[in-house]
Write a structure and sequence with these properties.
With about 220 residues, this protein is an alpha+beta fold. It is about 25% helix and about 20% strand. A five-stranded mixed beta sheet has the order 4-11-10-8-12, with helices on one face. Strands 1-6-14 form a three-stranded antiparallel beta sheet. Strands 2-3 form a two-stranded antiparallel sheet. The protein is globular.
Length: about 220
Amino acid sequence: MPVNSSALSVLPPLSAQAERLIELGVHESAGLPAADVRRFAEKARTSADGAGALLAVHPDRAPASALAPLLSRDGKPGFVVIDMPDVDDFTPLGTVALPEAPLYVLTGLDRGDQMANWSPDEALPALTARARTPLLLTEGIHWVIQQPAALERNHCFMTIGSRLRKAGGALDARTPALWISNGTGRDGRERRDAPKVGWCWAGNRHTWLGFASTTGRRGEM
């Protein structure tokens, strides 16, 4: 049985999330003093939006390629698939508004299990109709860093808020996702059960991938 969605909505306190990021060195790679991360987490904690929120570093400061190796499952670090060398070129959709701040919080996280076996092309308008926005890839990684149980075998998720635009402006057909490697193909057997950043086609359906989303993002407290 998958982890109950209500259980996933209970994240560690923001102060603990801040310490986790500091422990992993995310603040250093993002050019942020540890004191600033702790201060922001404390302000967010005391705000109305602080309860059950996820602390995130803006993707301009902490790109997916830097965050993915910080994931861990059964002692194995996360990785980006070999055919996604342009992972950091996947930027927010125009419909996803990010706070103009190095740190922000997300509220109302949902893994989107009920949308498993939908295609990204089908899921995006459905999320919009529900006043939800899809997670960015970096936000999904932050979630799993803080709450590893959010990534389960057969119950993983896509992060279709991040897309790559081609030179002419059209969207690349790939959509990023987080799941667990089977250790096959170019992943390598040594990576079996490791957290994996990969991609799927925008028109394809997968029974084991939901669509992670949020009800809001907030920066300055």
